[in-house]
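Field reference: sequence -> structure
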Amino acid sequence: MNCSKFLQLTCHSTVIAELEIVGSEQPWMDCEFTSLETFSEHRDFFYDYQKTYSSGTVMDWDEFFNQLSNSGYRLSNQHYEIRRFILILSDSECKARLRGKRVKNT
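Structure field:
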């Protein structure tokens, strides 16, 4: 099993979802998305975030991406973290498309 293909979406220290990277079409990664029970209270944030990105109206990208860290969201595994990420959930929430800046953990 390739552990680097698995990521955890956390809010502060609570895991709210798990992603498995199953393919890529650069710069996007295709993922299997498993929301945990704790994701329900964060769902609206991610749908609003996705809607803002998809609208094409983002004027300040730093402000847009800072929403993630300011709200305590992190996407990572033991080897690396994805920063400044965009997560597009499918209607069924079992698949997602992901892009972001991969940073190796030190």
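Note: The beta strands are 6-11, 14-25, 28-35, 73-76, 80-89, 95-104.
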